[in-house]
From TrEMBL:
<dbReference type="InterPro" id="IPR038396">
    <property type="entry name" value="SpoIIAA-like_sf"/>
</dbReference>
<protein>
    <submittedName>
        <fullName>STAS/SEC14 domain-containing protein</fullName>
    </submittedName>
</protein>
<dbReference type="InterPro" id="IPR021866">
    <property type="entry name" value="SpoIIAA-like"/>
</dbReference>
<dbReference type="InterPro" id="IPR036513">
    <property type="entry name" value="STAS_dom_sf"/>
</dbReference>
<dbReference type="Pfam" id="PF11964">
    <property type="entry name" value="SpoIIAA-like"/>
</dbReference>
Length: 122
């Protein structure tokens, strides 16, 4: 499940994810929001929060995730991953070179700092 978050700084998209991610999470929630930003000519700045249990991704979700990452590669500016899930934190640090734009990991209690960083405030 992915849901949009309110209260993000101007120019920043926020999402909270948990449970099992489905293809429709990408096609109905993430993709439309990202495409709207990209179509406006703005840079994509995202805060992605994984606060609860994460049980994986359906195969269709994995494919959609890969497509989103490479679609309009140059539009991505900042991705803030907010989680205490160790393998996600380590994975982003290890593969940050393969992520479009700049990526950074934040603890769950640093959600506000993550949003400020994504906005370019820090």
């Amino acid at each position: 499940m992915i849901r949009a978050l309110d209260g993000m700084p101007a120019g920043v998209l926020g999402f909270e994810a948990g449970g099992e991610l489905s293809r429709s999470d990408y096609t109905e929630v993430l993709a439309p929001a990202l495409e709207s930003v990209s179509a406006s000519g703005s840079k994509i700045r995202v805060v992605l929060v994984f606060a609860g249990p994460f049980s994986g991704m359906e195969p269709g979700a994995l494919w959609e995730d890969l497509k989103l990452g490479i679609h309009d590669w140059n539009a991505w500016e900042r991705i803030a991953l907010v989680t205490d899930i160790r393998w996600m934190r380590d994975g982003l640090r290890f593969f940050a070179w393969a992520v479009p734009g700049e990526a950074r990991v934040f603890d769950l209690d640093q959600r506000d700092q993550a949003a400020d960083w994504a906005a370019g405030s820090t």
